[in-house]
Amino acid sequence: MLKKNLSKSALVVALLTTTVIWRGTTAYAEDPNQAFTLDPMIVTAQRTETRDLDTPATTNIITEQNIKEAGYKNVFDAIEHQVGLTSTGYGDAGQDFGFSSGRTVIRGYDRGTLVMVDGIPMNLKNYNSLDGIPIDMVQQIEIIKGAAGTLYGSEAMGGVVNVITKRPGGKTQVKVKGTVGNYYKDYGVTYAGEKLIVTASKEYSNKLTHSNAYPEGSSTDWWVGKGQKNRAGISAALTDEIGFTFIYQDGNITRGSNNDAKKVGSVYKKYNYRYDDKRITTGLTYNGKYNGIKALVGYNYRRTEGYDFAAATPGPVSSSADLSSCIGDVQKTWNLGKNTLITGYSLRRENYENLVTKANKAHRTSNAIYLSYNNVFSDKFSATLGLRGEIIDDPVKSENILNPQFQTLYKINDTTSWYINIGKAFQMPTVDSYYGKKAAAGTLKPEEGWTYETGIKKIYDNKSIKLAVFHMDFENKIGWSDKDPGTGEQYAINKGDFRNTGIEAEFTHNVNDKWRYSLGIGYGNPEVKDPSTANPKWVQDDGRIDASASVFYSISKLTSGLTYKYLGDREYYGGHDVPSRSRLTWNTSYDLTKNDNITLTMNNLLDKDNYSNRYGNLDLPYNWKITYTRTF
């Protein structure tokens, strides 16, 4: 069945790709100065700017132009199309329902990816919901897979994602846009000037009568009501060295069941929820031009309130909470001849307060010192040693940890490099997991372990080849228990040891100024070993096969492209194998004038019942949207 699905999907992609290329003589060419470099500068992997070819880690870079041409709906949508990402949501493009949150998953390790905006951590409850980031503010997204805990600390178990927002500059302009579609609409305005960028938008989603694979993938036949979200963002250049970012979102959505889904005692219960969600991410950044100092002060906040209308006594759901985190980080880069030393200090405080049980509140404080020393032995070979010491003041059990990292880079020639990346990661249980019906304080152990990776990058002017082999070996992976037979509730537990050995390969070719394509495939074997059974055995914990493909053709005023993402050989859950996921998107953009653009996006062209997670939640069926943009 897997081979049949793969063959069918591959045939459709091949046919559609051929059609786009063959008809490309009527397409579009952007400004020739907007080249698609295959060796971009990366700031996240090493905490300093390095070329991709000189970075000893597996990386994926998504630019503003990539987002525009692919027609990605939001940041989550852009990230999950990359190889090595098996992200999970509760509907299309990372849909959230309160703290049933969409999240980015790197190499199969759920709740193990640290997501940042301009270096400000967004993770709360180990979740990294990306819904609040306005897509119009994004300049570049940097995905660093593998060991990252030494430079960025807790929650970077599988890797780190840094969403870099646009910075003011250039001539003043105003953009207004509006989108209509069969499931979705929005409208917004963006002002961009020499010192300030301001964006505001409003989004609406339509009702879904059936949003789950019922009864095959879920015991609940869910409906989702109309949703609405308000977003705003500010990016300001206070000086040449100091920047300010502010991102805000509030929204609401309803969700319920068409059937009597859950048996509590002798009674079957229906669901009927409303979720109100408010988010703020803001911070100041300093980037010294001449002194080698970078610093930031950031704040991340989320308030989610759920209301249960179907309860015997209607009222707020128990998970309703206020969450926030504050961070301060300062680093200094020392240039020691050919060698480089980065030293830094980081302070983070996480806060939790339950909105129903007010006594359930706590905070955690982390103080860390880190360093990264790069020694250039020759023009061809260099090595980097990293070390992070962290003191974690926890409400239950404090920890003192030490995370080392070792990297090497060998330049085979001017276009080819070989790297090794080995590092340790550590992650505490979420602060709120100490409260609950079953999870007693002190029963959860921190997650920790090592990632070993080696890879080769070959980057020419117009093509690149990347190959990486990795092994992840972690202890005490935190997950969810089985449902309690009396209440139907789940709670956090240590599922057991986790391991994943895999390989990823990517090829990108900018054929000429008219068309380009990329192909990527990954294979891993993410497994968890449950220690609670009499004879523990390794059990598959996420999908094994991961593939992506894209092709774009552009000429004159038109750009047309296809993007494809496939997840296959997924895990066994709830008494069945989670079906493969196959998503094909076609995006076409046409410049009516130099100031007017119209874009047509068609998602899920194969109209597949794609599971967005293991619980049976579905992506949208085939859907379309048309966006008109006017620039003044």
UniProtKB/TrEMBL annotation:
The keyword Transport applies. Keywords: Cell outer membrane, Membrane, Receptor, Signal, TonB box, Transmembrane, Transmembrane beta strand, Transport. The keyword Cell inner membrane does not apply. Pfam families: Plug (PF07715), TonB_dep_Rec_b-barrel (PF00593). It comes from the Bacteria. Gene3D superfamilies: TonB-dependent receptor, beta-barrel domain, TonB-dependent receptor, plug domain. One of its GO terms (cellular component) is cell outer membrane. Residues 1-29 form the signal peptide. It is a multi-pass membrane protein. One of its GO terms (biological process) is siderophore transmembrane transport. Residues 53-160 form the TonB-dependent receptor plug domain. It is found in: Cell outer membrane. Its main location: membrane. Residues 237-605 form the TonB-dependent receptor-like beta-barrel domain. GO terms for molecular function: siderophore uptake transmembrane transporter activity. PANTHER family: HEMOGLOBIN AND HEMOGLOBIN-HAPTOGLOBIN-BINDING PROTEIN 1-RELATED, TONB-DEPENDENT OUTER MEMBRANE RECEPTOR. Belongs to the TonB-dependent receptor family. This is TonB-dependent receptor. It comes from Phascolarctobacterium faecium.
